[in-house]
């Protein structure tokens, strides 16, 4: 019945529209014939048509039920046109929807997955008081403990527990405000009381912490639950760098006598506030630790760690760790040795990250043991005759980066405009000749003559004969009867022997001087350094992230016990170093350290060669590692809470 009614109404509308159209055509014809102005009658008629249609169908948009009758009132051509429009509209909607999905979709890190990393050695004290004694302990402390400040991916300090830091005008008082949302792995809030307790434990001789000397004369005082202050015995601009030690839970450690702290089970089953918490440890049947298991700490105050199971596996040697990598029992390894690097680099399963390290390698001149080296022009000639880029590319490949000074390029105080000694062999030779050092050649006949005169009773004859015999056959340079010769010393380990051989060849071939080399066993090198029993030493020094290099270059660090290997002394350099380490204003510190760099590169007590990379290998399934600079090995975990394995798709609106 309803359908018949609808059909009747539809037919009526159609009939009416046809009559209306005939009427409009008729009236238009009349207007055109009679010359009437058009528009008014037709307009009124259109309005009447609309009113009639609207009175019969209140809805202006046809319903789906009505549209199904559309084919009954359209011819074949009209129906094809309507269907084509609908198809185009549908395809357009599908295209736009798909395009939006693919352009507004991203793979986001998701929780889950397992990761195992190998280390050489074993855990002894996972305790910030003793972590500096063992690299493995320091690594695990970075996972378990939080600190006031931590090192970020680029090596710069970032807030961890600290929210704010204020330094007094005299540089002696550091007031720290800590965050109020940090918690311990076993429950409870981390407060300023825990920070003060840890600091006092570091200083307490009963704990025997190696960090004690760094805070001698300094005091810590709690202000309220979430703020404290440190009072220094004297200003020290790099004090903030020292506030990276992990914080212990006072409520737990107060129950452990200080003189028995090294025996506490907490050293192997630590409680901290870091991104990962201790879950379990596994020993073999002999009681030797095999590995540690860690899990994300749900109450961590920073970004939640995503890898759900983290395992640290202990190996006695690099060779066994390499086996672990090749059989995939571990998926990461830090400080990959040069000897095994090529066995890993080519494997598609791994990523090899070359991260900037804190070490600089240089040729340190001991001017007291070789008077020729006291001549600055000779040192400049030695620097100008070295092609450092070629030494690095041929001898060290891409394992190091070239440097030109005592402060690394990523340091805020680095001076990019300081003097650099490029490879200029012709200018180097000219400099020697201008100083009276002329090229000579000692022949076999000269050696034979010298051998016959070495026991001469004439002192000058004997001295010259011994000098000729010491230099030996070949080219050299002489001045006033003296031969220019240098002994180059290094440690018998790693790349050092190959490096000094390359240096020797450059000096002999480009300058025509006599160079001998000396390799010192690794166990004896410290004694050689301590006694300064060398003329020119190729060796490395490990810096901190702060530009304070007072310990390496100040006059007070000359001699046994000091680290001023070149015995360098300069009033201008000393003043810059002294000022730079006590003022807090960074702009002024930059000014002082740039003055120091300008002074030392002009004096040239050493030729700065290169800085080795820290090689870190990881399975490709691990994403998120973005380290740029590692000051200590544990810094590779600086952003471990952002590492991930699993991903999920999310739309970006």
List keywords for this structure.
653 residues; alpha+beta; D-Maltodextrin-Binding Protein, domain 2; Dipeptide-binding Protein, domain 3; 4 domains; eight-stranded mixed beta sheet; four-stranded mixed beta sheet; 20 helices; 36% helix
Give a quick precis of the structure.
This protein is α+β, with helices and mostly antiparallel strands. The chain has four domains: 2-103, no CATH class; 114-353 and 629-651, 3-Layer(aba) Sandwich (D-Maltodextrin-Binding Protein, domain 2); 359-422 and 485-613, Dipeptide-binding Protein, Domain 3 (Dipeptide-binding Protein, domain 3); 438-483, no CATH class. Strands 12, 13, 14, 15, 19, 20, 21 and 22 form an eight-stranded mixed β-sheet that branches.
Characterize the structure shown.
34% of the residues are buried. A hairpin with a 5-residue loop joins strand 3 (149-151) and strand 4 (157-159). This protein folds into four domains: 2-103, no CATH class; 114-353 and 629-651, Periplasmic binding protein-like II (D-Maltodextrin-Binding Protein, domain 2); 359-422 and 485-613, Dipeptide-binding Protein, Domain 3 (Dipeptide-binding Protein, domain 3, Roll), CATH 3.10.105.10; 438-483, no CATH class. The protein has 653 residues and is of the alpha+beta class. 36% of the residues lie in helices and 21% in strands.
């Amino acid at each position: 019945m309803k359908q018949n009614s609808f059909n009747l109404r539809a037919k009526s509308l159609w009939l009416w529209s046809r009559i209306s159209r005939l009427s409009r055509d008729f009236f238009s014809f009349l207007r055109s014939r009679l010359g009437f102005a058009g528009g008014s009658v037709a307009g009124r008629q259109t309005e009447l048509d609309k009113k009639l249609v609207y009175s019969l169908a209140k809805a202006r948009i046809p319903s789906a039920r009505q549209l199904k009758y559309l084919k009954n009132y359209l011819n074949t051509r009209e129906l094809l046109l309507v269907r084509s429009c609908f198809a185009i509209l549908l395809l357009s909607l599908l295209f736009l929807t798909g395009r939006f999905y693919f352009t507004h979709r991203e793979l986001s890190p998701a929780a889950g997955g397992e990761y195992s990393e190998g280390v050489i050695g074993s855990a002894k004290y996972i305790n910030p008081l003793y972590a500096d004694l063992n690299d493995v302990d320091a690594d695990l402390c970075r996972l378990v403990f939080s600190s006031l400040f931590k090192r970020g991916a680029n090596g710069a300090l970032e807030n961890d527990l600290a929210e704010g830091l204020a330094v007094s005008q005299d540089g002696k008082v550091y007031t720290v405000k800590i965050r109020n949302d940090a918690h311990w792995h076993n429950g409870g809030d981390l407060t300023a009381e825990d920070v003060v307790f840890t600091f006092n434990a570091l200083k307490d001789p009963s704990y025997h912490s190696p960090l004690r000397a760094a805070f001698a004369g300094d005091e810590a005082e709690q202000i309220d639950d979430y703020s404290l202050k440190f009072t220094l015995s004297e200003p020290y601009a790099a004090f903030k760098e020292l506030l990276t030690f992990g914080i212990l839970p006072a409520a737990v450690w107060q129950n452990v006598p200080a003189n028995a702290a090294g025996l506490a089970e907490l050293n192997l089953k630590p409680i901290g506030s870091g991104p990962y918490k201790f879950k379990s440890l596994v020993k073999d049947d002999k009681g030797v630790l095999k590995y540690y298991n860690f899990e994300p700490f749900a109450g961590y105050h920073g970004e939640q760690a995503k890898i759900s199971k983290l395992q640290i596996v202990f190996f006695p040697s690099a060779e066994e760790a390499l086996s672990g990598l090749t059989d995939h029992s571990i998926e990461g390894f830090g400080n990959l040795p040069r000897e095994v690097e090529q066995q890993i680099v080519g494997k598609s399963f791994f990523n090899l990250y070359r991260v900037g390290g804190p070490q600089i390698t240089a040729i340190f001149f001991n001017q007291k043991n070789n008077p020729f080296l006291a001549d600055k022009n000779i040192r400049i000639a030695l620097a100008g005759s070295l092609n450092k880029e070629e030494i690095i590319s041929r001898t060290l490949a891409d394992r190091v980066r070239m440097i030109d000074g005592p402060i690394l390029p990523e340091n805020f105080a680095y001076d990019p405009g300081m003097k650099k000694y490029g490879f200029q062999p012709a200018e180097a030779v000219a400099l020697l000749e201008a100083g009276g050092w002329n090229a000579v050649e000692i022949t076999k006949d000269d050696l034979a003559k010298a051998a016959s005169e070495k026991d001469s009773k004439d002192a000058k004859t004997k001295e010259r004969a011994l000098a000729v015999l010491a230099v030996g056959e070949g080219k050299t340079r002489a001045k006033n009867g003296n031969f220019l010769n240098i002994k180059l010393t290094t440690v018998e380990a790693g790349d050092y022997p190959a490096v000094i051989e390359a240096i020797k060849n450059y000096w002999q071939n480009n300058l025509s001087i006599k160079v001998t080399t000396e390799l010192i066993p690794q166990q004896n090198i410290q004694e050689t350094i301590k006694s300064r029993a060398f003329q020119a030493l190729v060796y490395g020094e490990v810096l901190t992230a702060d530009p304070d290099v007072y310990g390496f270059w100040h006059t007070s660090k000359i001699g046994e016990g000091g680290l001023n290997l070149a015995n360098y002394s300069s009033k201008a350099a000393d003043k810059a170093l002294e000022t730079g380490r006590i003022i807090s204003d960074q702009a002024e510190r930059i000014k002082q350290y740039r003055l120091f760099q300008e002074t030392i590169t002009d004096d040239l007590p050493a030729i700065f060669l290169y800085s080795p990379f820290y090689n870190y290998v990881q399975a490709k399934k691990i994403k998120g590692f973005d380290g740029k600079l590692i000051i200590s090995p544990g810094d590779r975990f600086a952003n471990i809470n952002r590492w991930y394995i699993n991903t999920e798709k999310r739309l970006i609106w």
